[in-house]
Amino acid sequence: MAIPLIEKLSQFKVRALALSVLWLIFFVVCQFGLDLLRPDPAEVVRAGVWVQGTVEKVEPTSKTGRKKITLAYFGGSKPRTIAVGMRAARGLEVGDKVSLVYEPGNPAKLLALDGEVVGDSDDVLLTPLSFAAFLGFPVCLYAAYLWRSRYRSASKTGLREATATVRPGWLYPRIDVYLERDYKLLQTRRSLRIAPRFKGLEKIPVFVGGEETDMIVIFPRGRFSKDTLYTVPVKEIEPDTA
């Protein structure tokens, strides 16, 4: 029984690698989407209404040096003011004259400033999705590396029958593992979602494999079904740190 359980760790590695590839593909797709949604400056300028504006205020908005530029201009024969980000108004100072383009029939909507398109409403969703994909790729790749290390460690030691008691814990609970002639205190390396099922129960039958930071505990109940096993990555810690 131990060999199929250990081999499943290799499947976890493959699954993490597949997820990392999917995140990478998703990131590339998001980048293409941003390029497609980003308007052509020449077309925006050609279709808009040209006016002259004046820089009224320049304010820093963050520690990174970004600025908020307040502009005054006449749109539809009425005086108007609008604030834009530094990306569209880099290097401007109070009193500078600038060329503005606003949407025909909607003077309150600024389209371009000195030939640069203002606003990024079209990519407001794709930008955070792209950032999530940018983070998801290395995270899944690292997870694949960890599962590979656990697979090698468990293959070296094999699986041992033990009993375990899950300590209360919101995110990363600890597990007391009692082997035939040994005791180990283990720290889970991810959220133990099945912990509430074992709350108040002691000496749950489990399998333990691996060494030090590359250990696993296999519980008799799965995350979604009581008829499947659930593998939890753990690392050994000193009992006096509990």
Order of helices and strands: HHEEEEEEHEEEEEE
What is the number of helices?
3
| Span of the ends, CA to CA | 33 Å
Radius of gyration: 29 Å
Strand content: 35-45%
How do the strands of the widest beta sheet line up side by side? 3-2-1-4-5-6
Count of DSSP E strands?
A: 12
Mean pLDDT: 79
Uncertain regions: pLDDT < 50 for 5+ in a row?
Answer: none
Helix share bin: 25-40%
- Based on Cα principal axes, name the global outline: elongated
Major sheet size, sense and barrel closure? 6 strands, antiparallel
Structural class: alpha+beta
Structure description:
A 6-stranded antiparallel beta sheet has the order 3-2-1-4-5-6. A 6-stranded antiparallel barrel has the order 7-8-9-12-11-10. The model has no long low-confidence stretch (mean pLDDT 79). The radius of gyration is 29 Å and the shape is elongated. By secondary structure, it is an alpha+beta fold. It is built from 3 helices and 12 strands. 31% of the residues lie in helices and 36% in strands.
SSE topology:
Blueprint: H1 2-37, H2 41-47, E1 49-60, E2 67-75, E3 78-85, E4 97-103, E5 106-113, E6 116-117, H3 126-157, E7 159-166, E8 174-178, E9 183-188, E10 204-211, E11 214-219, E12 230-237
Antiparallel strand pairs: 1-2, 1-4, 2-3, 4-5, 5-6, 7-8, 7-10, 8-9, 9-12, 10-11, 11-12
Helix pairs in contact: 1-3
